[in-house]
Amino acid sequence: QMIFNADEAHNIVKECIESILGKADYNHNKVNQWTAAIVEQSLTHLVKLGKTYKYIVTCAVMQRSGAGLHTANSCFWDTTTDGTCTVRWENRTMNCIVNVFAVAILL
Amino acid sequence: GYKFNAERVQQVLEGVLAGTLGTSVYSPQGSALLAQSLAELLRSRAKEVVPPRYKLVCQVLLGQQAQQSLLVASRALWDPESDSFASATFSNTSLFAVATVHGVYFE
């Protein structure tokens, strides 16, 4: 039976974030295209794994201001097949949190 | 209805956020716990208004108000005929919260 490989997903997402935000400084005008690019690229790479999952990927980018930020999730699903992973990333000017949720489907 | 009713779920999210956070104040330790219990509460309340055979992914972002900018984006690979999501936000002078529930139909 299929099990969600969180480590694999974590690496995929981390690379996507790095490639898009890596050397950038927070820029209000670019945040829209960055978050869109991060979720789309992550999704594309996850799909390439070829597993029978539906995926939900969310990305939050926040300007670093010393303010606290918490994220939590709660899922109603099949714990034997479904899974999630969270990637936290930051540089000098911004924080990024990406969550991947993989929900198994029967084919 | 047999489909995920986004409007109905959004109303539930808004009600729970306002009811739970009304006059809450941000605190580093307290807010971490609050985010988690909010996610679980939202998940169980959403489940009440969503048809059977739907798996649910509920996320909460809870942060300190500090005049900073935040953008949250998500993409999903799923069946647009049956799957959907709803989100709601809340803020007071001390904190803000973003809640999202994605519903994925399971055959």
UniProtKB/TrEMBL annotation, chain A:
GO terms for molecular function: dynein intermediate chain binding. One of its GO terms (cellular component) is cytoplasm. Its main location: nucleus. One of its GO terms (biological process) is microtubule-based movement. CDD domains: DLC-like_DYNLT3 (cd21463). It is found in: Chromosome, Centromere, Kinetochore; Cytoplasm, Cytoskeleton; Nucleus. Keywords: Cell cycle, Cell division, Centromere, Chromosome, Cytoplasm, Cytoskeleton, Dynein, Kinetochore, Microtubule, Mitosis, Motor protein, Nitration, Nucleus, Transport. Pfam families: Tctex-1 (PF03645). Homodimer. The cytoplasmic dynein 1 complex consists of two catalytic heavy chains (HCs) and a number of non-catalytic subunits presented by intermediate chains (ICs), light intermediate chains (LICs) and light chains (LCs); the composition seems to vary in respect to the IC, LIC and LC composition. The heavy chain homodimer serves as a scaffold for the probable homodimeric assembly of the respective non-catalytic subunits. The ICs and LICs bind directly to the HC dimer and the LCs assemble on the IC dimer. DYNLT1 and DYNLT3 compete for association with dynein IC (DYNC1I1 or DYNC1I2). Belongs to the dynein light chain Tctex-type family. Acts as one of several non-catalytic accessory components of the cytoplasmic dynein 1 complex that are thought to be involved in linking dynein to cargos and to adapter proteins that regulate dynein function. Cytoplasmic dynein 1 acts as a motor for the intracellular retrograde motility of vesicles and organelles along microtubules. Probably binds BUB3 as part of transport cargo. Required for the efficient progression through mitosis. This is Dynein light chain Tctex-type 1. It comes from Calypte anna (Anna's hummingbird).
From TrEMBL, chain B:
It comes from the Eukaryota. Signal peptide: none annotated. One of its GO terms (cellular component) is cytoplasmic dynein complex. One of its GO terms (molecular function) is dynein intermediate chain binding. InterPro entries: Tctex-1-like, Tctex-1-like_sf. Pfam families: Tctex-1. One of its GO terms (biological process) is microtubule-based movement. Belongs to the dynein light chain Tctex-type family. This is Tctex1 domain-containing protein 1. The lineage of its organism: Eukaryota, Metazoa, Chordata, Craniata, Vertebrata.
